[in-house]
C-alpha cells in the first residue's frame, strides 16, 4: 500500500476537524448581534479619486474635444494663452465658447489610487524588511561577540541581549522615540525601525551563537591547522554550516518581527494596524476590518514562510 493509502484516514479526520471548527465558528457568528458591513471594506484597498479641475485663468472655452470617457477642454485667455484640461466626459461643466474665470470648475478627472489598507501594508512590509536586515547585521555581530574570548566585548554583548530580552518591545519603542528620538532629533520612522532592529538583533544574536557553537570545534582547529586565520575560518567554514542550521529559527524570528511591527503604530506610524484603527473609527466595521487585517498579516508571513522553505530545500540539495 502506498503512502497516500496509509494516510487517507488521517486526512479524512483532519478534514472533519476543520469542518467542525468552521461550523462552530459559523454558529458563534450567527449568535452575535452585529450587523456585518463587508461592502465597506473594498474601498479601503483601492478607490476612485475625483480631482476637481479648475480654470487656471480668465478666458473662454475654445475647444471641447471628447475622446471616449475623457474630454479635453481648452481654455484660451484674452492674451492668447491656452490651457488644456482633461476631465471625465460625464463631468464636463462648461460649454463651447463659454466664458470662465480663474478657479471656475471645468469638470472632474478620476483615477484609481491605493487605499489606506494597501498603503498601511506597504509601510508594514518596508519597516519589517529594513528592521530585519539591520537586526540580522546586529545579531550576527553580537552573536560573534558572545563567543569572543575578550571579556569586555563578551560582557557588552551579554548586557545588550539581557536588557533587550528582559524588557517589553512597547517600552523600547517609547524610549527610542520619546527619549532617544528627542535627544538626537530622530523621526518616528527612524526611531521605530531602530527599536525593532535592536529588538530583533538581540534574539538573532542568541540564534547565531547557538548555531556557531553547534559546529564541532574540530572544524575550526582543522581550518587553523591549514593556515587559515580565525576570520577566514569563521566566514568560509563555520558560518556557512551554521546558517543551514539556524535558518528555521531565523525565519521564525523574522515572522515574529512582522507581527511585532504593529506596535510602531503607538508612535503614529501609519502601518497596517494603525490604518485599520483609523478605518474602524470612520466606519464602525470593527470585526470586518480586523479580520481583513489579520488575513493580510497572514498573507505576508505565509509568503515569507514559503520563501524560507524554498531556501531550506535548496540548501538540502547543496549538501
Automatic annotation (TrEMBL):
Listed SUPFAM superfamilies: MetI-like
Q: Where in the cell does this protein reside?
A: Cell inner membrane; Cell membrane
Question: What are the GO BP annotations of this UniProt entry?
Answer: amino acid transport
Q: Which domain of life is it from?
A: Bacteria
Give the matching Pfam families: BPD_transp_1 (PF00528)
The UniProt transmembrane annotation reads 12-29, 119-145, 157-180, 186-205, 289-310
The cellular component terms of Gene Ontology attached to this UniProt record, alphabetical and capped at eight, are: ATP-binding cassette (ABC) transporter complex
What the entry lists under CDD domains is as follows: TM_PBP2 (cd06261)
Annotated Gene Ontology MF terms? transmembrane transporter activity
Q: How does it sit in the membrane?
A: Multi-pass membrane protein
Which residue intervals define the domain ABC transmembrane type-1 in the entry? 121-308
Write the record's keywords in alphabetical order, separated by commas. Amino-acid transport, Cell membrane, Membrane, Transmembrane, Transmembrane helix, Transport
Name the job this protein performs. Part of the binding-protein-dependent transport system for glutamine; probably responsible for the translocation of the substrate across the membrane.
Record's protein name: Putative glutamine transport system permease protein GlnP
